[in-house]
Amino acid sequence: MKKYLFSLVMVVILLLTACGAKTPDKPAGPTSLSFMMWGDPAELTVWKQIVADFEAANPTITVSVEVSDWDSYWTKLKTLLAAKTPPDMFAIDAPLYLDYQSKDVLLNLQPYLDKNPGMLDGLFPQTLQAYQTPQGYFGLPRDFQTIVLFYNKTMFDKASLAYPTADWTWDDLRDAAKKLTLDTNGDGKTDQYGFSFDMWDMEPGYSEAIWSYGGDMISADHTKTLLGDPAARTAWQLLYDMTFKDKSVPDSNTSGQYGGDTFAAGVSAMTPMGHWAVPGYADANLSFDVAPMPKGPAGRFTSVNSAGFVIAKLTKHPNEAFQFLKFVLSTAGQTRLAELGFACPVLKSIAQSDAFLKQKININQQVFLDALQYSRIKPVFKGYDEWSSAVGDGMAPVWRGEADLNQTLDQVIAAADDVLSKNK
């Protein structure tokens, strides 16, 4: 009996030992993150380098980057969000931020920021405002854009005109544009224009003029379109007269023949534009530089906007995704972005360093930073995408020379206000 009990006990012990023993686990593989953004192949090259730097510092995390053109990007992103299969992280244009944040598809970053006090202290405060909500930050800026005046030095030199300065007013710009508008081959057709601007988007288009004349685009509470107020109409009239009276600005039919950017085509002498255009203008072998936007009766104003990044609420790896965002905003990440040359770093120390100020393309980079002093944030509100389409598409007949300015403005404002009423 004792032998039987002893044998039974040994069997039980062996069974328990076998059940409790663990075979060595296979090493856990790295966490894989996906990041989607818009851009071009040159941007993808730099982002791959940023990822390589990040992975070297965080060997348990890998990041795959997908870059698409602007239109394809938003179409794909909406499809993935609808299917509840979004990338872990994706880029966001600041004006569209609230459209996505209000749909509850973004991760609230505030708890992570609270665990990293001081993380945002070194960023330009103007770049953060667009992402602030009562619940905290659901996105962060990765870079920013201020609109400045680009000018073609060759065209100014041939016309024996002094380059634009910080003393310029919109009247000075208009006078110079007239002198720079030429029929260079004598065939009776204008083949060089003094000025051009984006006739659809407010950012490199009409917002700077409207602010400079004392107007605005939308009320502070985002319930009323102000594009038809007297001061705004004065600015609209200036741009209209430059186009159809002075004929120093190509209408949209003409600019369309040059892909929408006559400055890049070497056909216009001046244009308001952001830093994203610098590499392309350099590749076009243009001799150009930049100056502050001109002053109007209400002062000098420009737009500041940012490309930001967000984390999907459905990500399975929020901590690792935040680590990547944190790296992009670090000295190492921002230095790499400065090398990209498409935008201004949001980290002050890098924006004010040689990494940004002494890039290979030799233009006055400081002008973009100084513009923050007289900048206003490009409006950010729910329904922005639909509102901007109502305005841009609605005003298109005017810039084709097919519709009356003021009558069209009245119609556009009604349509834009209807969008705002649906997005309260």
Which features does this protein show?
19 helices, alpha+beta, 3-stranded antiparallel sheet, 42% helix, 424 residues, globular
Helix content: 40-55%
Rg, rounded, reads 27 Å
Distance between the termini: 85 Å
Note the beta-strand portion: 15-25%
Question: How many strand elements?
Answer: 14
Mean pLDDT: 92
Global morphology: globular
Coarse structural class: alpha+beta
Indicate the topology.
Elements: H1 2-20, E1 31-38, H2 41-57, E2 61-68, H3 70-82, E3 89-93, H4 97-101, H5 110-114, H6 125-128, E4 132-133, E5 136-137, E6 140-146, E7 148-152, H7 153-158, H8 170-179, H9 207-212, H10 230-244, H11 252-256, E8 270-273, H12 278-283, E9 288-291, E10 295-296, E11 299-300, E12 302-311, H13 318-328, H14 331-340, E13 344-345, H15 348-351, H16 354-357, H17 366-370, E14 375-377, H18 384-399, H19 405-422
Helix pairs in contact: 2-14, 18-19
Describe the fold and architecture.
- 42% of the residues lie in helices and 15% in strands.
- It contains 19 helices and 14 strands.
- Helix 2 (41-57) runs antiparallel to helix 14 and helix 18 packs antiparallel against helix 19 (405-422).
- It is globular and about 70 Å long.
Explain briefly what this protein structure is.
This protein is an alpha+beta fold and 424 residues long. The protein has 19 helices and 14 strands. It has helices spanning 2-20, 41-57, 70-82, 97-101, 110-114, 125-128, 153-158, 170-179, 207-212, 230-244, 252-256, 278-283, 318-328, 331-340, 348-351, 354-357, 366-370, 384-399, 405-422; strands at residues 31-38, 61-68, 89-93, 132-133, 136-137, 140-146, 148-152, 270-273, 288-291, 295-296, 299-300, 302-311, 344-345, 375-377.
